[in-house]
Design goal:
MULE_transposase_dom; alpha+beta
């Protein structure tokens, strides 16, 4: 005997989406705001970072659809199904402002009243188990959707799907359904009807199912338009409570598609109504997700891609690495124009395709070239990062202090460009990679930093300098928890010009005193005292901006950053910048391919200047201003530029007066400029290990000994610079020892490790085997490394 039941309960067993949304509709359709390319970012094994992303409270999304897509991808990877539990609408415009997604096993089924209608009843499997797993996102005032509530634990067993398939609508071409149409499975029929609905312009839900009494397998599925039936009317309600008028979502539409399973295993269309009672969408743009048989099928509407294109059934289009757009016909000029018009970023589809092809071509020519690519709902570029072998070599040698320059993004007429830079041993700018970033969310910066550090072989920098931005600060603390992060003081002061403009105008002396407080305070206590004096003098104690700046003083005030290495020698030595070059060429009208080409040319100029300085350093000898043994020593070690800096410190040290203030094995000295007795520096010298430090902390921040320590060296008869105070990054041999193969090996091992983790986590038994094998392999690697080290030291 076979029975029929409402699909509101049964569909959860084989669908990734619960089609019963108590608040909105009885289906769940995902907007194309993330379309195929974004689906690839979250599902494709080539996008390791997205695939391994974990939700967290505070995580931001550009839209509700992005949040849905992310949680669906996470659920599919972990191994559970999702449905919408709650929603909240704005009282102003009825738009959704809150969504709560829960595990499909959340809650419990209501017990129906007992009655006997003479029919034999089949005991239903319980699919609700009171699971508390959920994620809730709320739209903030600035437009972003933020995770406010999160429960990750399930009270039932979850299992990750074994594989992920991407099925585009063109897999079925432009075929229309007809009676007698055959499918190999009900999943194939479901995928076909979703594709047809997406192309025609309506949404689908599962209405009825019938199962076999023998083995509980499906033998009938009925799919209907979401406007089938009528929205129930509430007969009783509390009139004291204000009610909003809901827009009816059911209009009595009769369109439906029913398939039944035949004895020979095929599924046949047995009932079909194509006519709708309502208008269809002109340009449908929905993405549906179906989970069954340990697969996640992503079915997307790709618009004009279906036009005049004949594709045989069962064809599957897979996204390539970093959002392969190769399935888009670049010759279709109409589609290119259409996509460019609706693209919300400054980059069009043609631009995006050209840049991706450029990256692929460059990587084919040089396997050490690294790039990461992310596109939006229209296959237009949203994020990109790239770095070549020279950037990796530069980072290997000079990547201890890094600047992330996002200042170009502040000009809306410029390309949203991000650049990783540092300084080499000639105090010239060096490049550690480029990026394009169309938004400034924390998630976007996390994506950027994670891809950047992969390209740089996984070595974290000692310090990171950025413009002031809350999102990038949070991203750095997540990706580089041990790295010292500082905000650029100049950028903070520029913000002060905006926030305190009225004070700057009405109080002529404020700016001078404010900056003196920042630059001349030798200790944190002195700074905080001077700060309070300024607030009191100018009656700014309640100023919210200054309160905020004081709360983050450890990240931008110089006196709090004396122990952070930044490779900044002096204010007068400024490395070369791309600002003028960038402002001249890189406006929003510049194509991405031209941008990449111009950057390559600019970097060629940088590399040539570095090579010329390397040559000059090797074949010329600097002029000594005084016959000092220490100067003769470092003249053979430092580059010309660094020697000039050191020699300036040495000569200036001769004009300082030294007084011992504490005697012993560790002695302290007061070092003062003759004509400026008000400025005193304290130098400590340990005679046992010949180590020293100064209150100015120049060596800690710049890696060059200050004039105060050099003056004490003369006093204690230190005539040669100790090796511990010669940083390799400032020497002629700074670039010796770099092996490019190291980066190649790292990247290959990283990719293999991600594949290993994916396969090894599919089940508990497989995980046990994978964990054991990994521990054995890791022990062998350590043993091999130890053996090589011991042989080298023999």
């Amino acid at each position: 005997m076979e029975t029929t039941s409402s699909e509101d309960e049964e569909s959860l067993k084989d669908n990734n989406v619960d089609l019963n949304d108590d608040n909105i509709e009885h289906h769940m359709a995902f907007d194309v705001s993330n379309q195929l390319a974004d689906a690839g970012n979250l599902f494709s094994s080539h996008q390791q970072n997205s695939e391994n992303s974990e939700p967290f409270v505070g995580m931001e999304f550009e839209s509700e659809e992005s949040a849905k897509l992310f949680y669906m991808a996470y659920a599919s990877r972990v191994g559970f199904s999702v449905r919408i539990s709650k929603s909240r609408r704005s009282r102003n415009d009825e738009s959704i402002i809150m969504r709560r997604f829960v595990c499909s096993k959340e809650g419990f089924h209501l017990r129906k009243g007992k009655f006997d209608d003479g029919k034999k009843k089949r005991k239903r499997a319980t699919i609700r188990e009171g699971c508390n797993a959920m994620i809730e996102v709320i739209q903030k005032y600035y437009g972003r959707w933020v995770v406010t509530k999160l429960v990750k634990e399930h009270n039932h067993v979850v299992a990750a799907p074994s594989r992920v398939l991407y099925v585009a609508p063109e897999a079925y071409g432009n075929a229309d359904p007809y009676l007698g149409m055959e499918f190999p499975s009900h999943e194939a029929a479901q995928t076909f009807y979703y594709a047809y609905a997406s192309r025609v312009g309506f949404d689908v839900r599962i209405r009825l199912s019938r199962r076999s009494t023998r083995d509980e397998t499906f033998v009938m599925r009925r799919f209907v338009c979401t406007k089938e039936g009528f929205t129930p009317h509430e007969d009783s309600y509390d009139e004291s409570k204000k009610k909003r008028n809901r827009t009816p979502t059911r209009e009595g539409c009769k369109a439906m598609f029913e398939v039944i399973k035949k004895d020979y295993g095929k599924w046949i269309v047995s009932k079909l109504i194509l006519e709708h009672t309502h208008d269809l969408a002109v340009a449908p743009s929905k993405v549906h997700y179906i989970q069954s048989d340990s697969e996640v099928v992503v079915l997307a509407k790709s618009g004009a891609l279906n036009r005049e294109k004949s594709v045989t059934p069962n064809t599957k289009t897979h996204l390539g690495k970093f959002g392969d757009l190769s399935n888009i016909p670049s010759s279709d000029n109409d589609f290119m124009t259409e996509a460019r018009d609706i693209c919300p970023t400054v980059f069009g589809l043609e631009d995006t395709q050209s840049l991706l092809e450029y990256f692929k071509r460059t990587q084919a020519e040089n396997p050490t070239f690294y790039y990461a690519f992310q596109v939006d709902k229209n296959n237009c570029l949203s994020h990109a990062f790239w770095a070549d072998a020279k950037a990796k070599m530069a980072y290997y040698c000079f990547g201890d202090a890094v600047t992330v320059d996002t200042s170009f993004k502040e000009n809306k007429n410029m390309v949203p460009f991000v650049m990783f830079t540092g300084v080499n041993h000639h105090l010239q700018s060096v490049n550690f990679g480029f990026a394009l970033l169309t938004d400034e969310s924390e998630a976007s910066f996390v994506w950027l930093l994670e891809n950047w550090i992969i390209a740089m072989c996984g070595r974290h920098p000692v310090s990171l300098s950025t413009d002031y931005h809350e999102a990038i600060g949070s991203a750095i603390s997540r990706v580089f928890p041990e790295t010292r992060h500082r905000f650029c003081k100049r950028h903070v002061l520029n913000k002060c010009n905006e926030r305190l403009s009225d004070v700057y105008v009405t109080r002529n002396t404020f700016k001078q005193e404010f900056e003196k407080c920042l630059d001349k305070s030798e200790t944190t206590d002195i700074f905080e005292s001077n700060w309070m004096v300024i607030l009191e003098k100018y009656d700014l104690g309640d100023n919210s901006w200054l309160k905020f700046l004081f709360s983050i003083r450890q990240k931008w005030v110089p006196v709090y950053l004396k122990d952070a290495f930044t490779a900044e020698i002096s204010a007068s030595q400024k490395p070369e910048s791309l600002i003028s070059f960038f402002e001249k060429y890189f406006n929003t009208k510049t194509s991405l391919l031209v941008l990449a080409s111009l950057l390559e040319q600019a970097m060629t100029g940088w590399y040539e200047r570095e090579a010329l300085e390397d040559l000059a350093t090797s074949y010329t000898r600097p002029i000594l201003r005084t016959p000092s043994n220490m100067l003769k020593q470092v003249a053979d070690i430092y580059t010309r530029t660094i020697f000039d800096v050191f020699q300036e410190e040495f000569v200036e040290s001769l004009g300082y007066f030294v007084e011992k203030i504490e005697d012993g094995l560790v002695s302290k000295y007061s070092v003062t400029k003759d004509e400026d007795v008000s400025t005193t520096f304290i130098v400590t010298y340990d005679f046992s290990n010949k180590r020293t430090n100064c209150s100015c902390c120049k060596f800690e921040t710049a890696g060059i000994l200050c004039r105060h320590i050099l003056r004490v060296f003369l006093t204690v008869d230190v005539r040669a610079l100790p090796d511990c105070y010669i940083l390799k990054r400032w020497t002629k041999d700074a670039k010796n020892g770099f092996v490019l193969d190291e980066c190649v090996r790292y990247n290959e091992l990283y990719r293999d490790a991600v594949k290993y983790a994916k396969e090894g986590s599919t089940s508990e038994d497989v995980y046990t085997v994978a964990k054991s094998a990994l521990q054995i392999g890791f022990a062998q690697v350590l043993a091999a490394k130890k053996s090589i080290v011991s042989q080298c030291t023999m």
